[in-house]
Amino acid sequence: MKRNFLIVLSIGCLAAQIEQRSNQVSDAEQFVARVEVCAFDSRGTFLAAPTVRVFESESHKDFSTSFRSGVADHIPFGIYKLEAYMSGFYPEVRYVAIYRPQVTVVVGLAFGREALTLPQPPTIHGKVIGSLPRDKKIFAKLAGIYSDRALESKIGRDGDFDFGVPWDGRYLLLIVSEDAILASRTIDIPYMGRAIEIKIGER
To answer: Is residue 6 one of the residues assigned to a domain?
Structure first.
């Protein structure tokens, strides 16, 4: 009887350990992600899956070897430093947040050495048309649509603003106040037209 009791007790303990380990694995699986990295050129043409050269966690563990054709599974949640590149393009380095089971990261790659060949970036002049709030801080912003590049410019009293943009690509031009986006439009760089006019309320 005692022997049977010990056998039953051992089986029960083993089952509890297996269940505990299963629960631990299940909990761990809830906090990992499938990450896909895809590349566009700076004007929006889809390229392909880039080579992930670096995918480093805050604890300095590099998961870059986990990527196959731009996709990696079982990436623990966290903040990562990403460096991605393709032959003929400049690499992009950025930080990405992985906090969902499925994460897509889009990198915008500059062709060749275009980012370094301009001794002085061309200046783009613009003017805001319409009544600007005088009691709030406002500024103009160029944000890359296919990259994480961004520039800001002060808006003068007459609505004028200027940018020196060293990178080609497609951007979103925003007129921003403290509590709202007052106007927005897309713009391609290099911009060859006359001074840009953007109206308050324009989308």
So the answer is: no
CATH number of the domain to which 101 belongs? 2.60.40.1120
Last residue of a domain, one of 83, 109, 135: 109
- Read off the amino acid at residue 18: I
The answer on 132 and 104 residing in a single domain is no
On the 0-12 / 13-18 / 19+ scale of CB atoms within 10 A, 69 is exposed
Chain-centroid distance of CA 112 in Å reads: 21
Q: What is the pLDDT tens value at each position of the chain, 203 positions in all?
A: 555 544 444 544 554 554 555 444 444 567 999 999 999 988 889 999 999 999 999 999 999 999 999 999 999 999 999 999 998 888 899 999 999 999 999 999 887 654 444 456 678 899 999 988 888 899 999 999 988 889 999 999 889 999 988 888 899 999 999 988 999 999 998 888 888 999 988 77
56 is in which domain, residue-wise? 33-109
Whole-prediction pTM: 0.70
